[in-house]
Amino acid sequence: MTAHIGVLALQGDVREHLAALSACGVDASPVRRRAELDDIDGLVIPGGESTAMSRLLGVFDLYDPLVERLREGLPAYGSCAGMIMLASRILDTRADARHLDALDITVRRNAFGRQVESFETDLSFTGITDAPGADPMRAVFIRAPWVEEVGGDVEVLATVPDGPAAGRVVAVRERNVLATSFHPEVTGDVRVHQFFVDMVRSA
Ligand code: GLN
């Protein structure tokens, strides 16, 4: 059966994620309503603005149902603002911003600072770029968070290779939940999406 993967479509770069998922051969559709949430095997939370997304989750009455589905084990992938939404602890956010507490990490919003607010680099991604003959992954960071702490069950999949932020954690997985600080949906390289699709299929 074809996996059905939703993209949370309240705000952010929804279209790019839908296109990347479609390129992986799954049935991909936007999620704005509770009924659409009930209908999916996995959810992507896009990049955008986490504080705006947090507010809209409330406006659309999606916050509680989404937290519940994540607790039940719904596979989820968050890029950038999506990583912030999935995290358990957020540094440098607004006091009233809510998040989903599905991934045992501490993230710092806008962590890379003004100098390197947006940048690109090639990096290694465990489970993807370590395949025989695989190319490194181009990672695009846009006012991105980084991961400052990971819980014991969290696997670190990628770090920044060099420069002022060398060693910073930028991709993690804990069971069914995947997150990247960067935006694979804008590069045309769908390997992270394929990785998530495989997680959904084996869930
Ligand atoms: N800085 C944004 C936030 O805090 C995230 C940026 C992004 O998703 N590109 O939500």
Provide tags for this entry:
203 residues, alpha/beta, Rossmann fold, seven-stranded mixed beta sheet, three-stranded mixed beta sheet, 6 helices, globular, binds glutamine
Characterization of the model:
This protein is of the alpha/beta class and 203 residues long. It has a single domain (4-202), classed as Class I glutamine amidotransferase (GATase) domain (Rossmann fold, 3-Layer(aba) Sandwich), CATH 3.40.50. The chain has six helices and twelve strands. It has helices spanning 14-23, 34-38, 50-59, 63-71, 81-86, 191-202; strands at 4-8, 27-31, 42-45, 76-79, 87-91, 103-108, 118-123, 137-142, 146-150, 155-159, 169-174, 177-180. It has a seven-stranded mixed beta sheet with strand order 2-1-3-4-12-11-10. It has a three-stranded mixed beta sheet with strand order 5-6-9. The longest helix has 12 residues, at 191-202. It is globular. The two termini are 14 Å apart. It binds glutamine. Residues 47-50, 80-81, 84, 109-110, 142-143 line the site of glutamine. Glutamine (GLN) binds at residues 47-50, 80-81, 84, 109-110, 142-143.
Could you spell the SSE succession in H and E letters? EHEHEHHEHEEEEEEEEH
The CATH class is identified as: Alpha Beta
Give the tally of β-strands: 12
- In angstroms, what separates the terminal alpha carbons? 14 Å
Q: What is the CA-based Rg, rounded?
A: 15 Å
Q: Provide the domain count.
A: 1
Judging by the overall fold, what is the CATH architecture?
3-Layer(aba) Sandwich
